[in-house]
Structure formats: structure tokens, C-alpha cells
Structure prediction request, 149 residues.
Amino acid sequence: MDIKVEKVADPKKRTLPVFKEVESLLDRIRNRAFEMFSGRGFGDGHALDDWLAAEREICWPAGELVEQDKEYVLSLTLPGFEPEEISVTTTPREVIVHAKTKTERKGEEEAQKGAKEKVCWSEFRSNDVWSSPRTSTSSQSPLLYKMES
Prediction:
């Protein structure tokens, strides 16, 4: 599966639109994590749990980042997305994966006319998915990509 990877050599040059979109996404995650914190009465000790829960809620792709022989392999499962709907942007220290698809919904009346079934439950969360895994080391190892759909 061929996925376009856009490489940015200088991590300080964040002029691509994807970087502004990631900042907006991080603001949403930050706000949701704060809502969880305030919902518990501002109790300390759960900042990381709140952040990770907010990130899962907003971004959702299942993934794994593994270091192998001085390289990183990123595996993400993005069901329902075609390769041309997935973009990857990299700098020497980060990788940003964005998958987005357009969906068209029929009006409820139109859907009920021809439908014999009705969706009662679904775990499909969004048609706009982000992931930006970080390594826990300051390694300069290159990132490799393995995308699964």
C-alpha cells in the first residue's frame, strides 16, 4: 500500500498546514483532559491518565511504535480509509499521520425509505483521524511506516 510521506528536514520550519492542524488538535486534547481533571474535583495524580484518555477519545487509531535495530516502525490500523486518504508528515523527531475521508449522509427520511436495517450501535468515531506518536528517547533513529487498513 503506497502512502505519500512528506519529509520536513528542519523541525523548526513548521509552515505546512498540517502543523497548524496538529496544534489545534492538541488544544482540543488539552481542553478535554482538563474537563476530565475538573470532573474529578481537580484531584492530583491523574494528569497522564487524563491526557491519554482524551487523546484516545479524540484521535482513536490503534497503533504501536517499536524500535528495531536503530529504526522505528510505526504500525497504525486505520479501517475504512484508502491509501490516498492518508497523509504522513515527518520531521527528524516526529511523525504526524492524518487520515480523512469525506462522508455523505442521507437524510433520515430518505435512509428509512430504502433501508431494512437501522444502525443501533457503532464504534466508528470519526472520518478525521490523527496520530502523532513520540519516542521516549532522544534517538535520531529514522522512522519507518507500516500502515494497515
Q: What stands out?
A: The chain has one domain: 5-102+119-148. The longest helix spans residues 17-39. Helices lie at 17-39, 47-59, 108-114. Residues 5-102+119-148 form a domain with the Immunoglobulin-like fold (CATH 2.60.40).
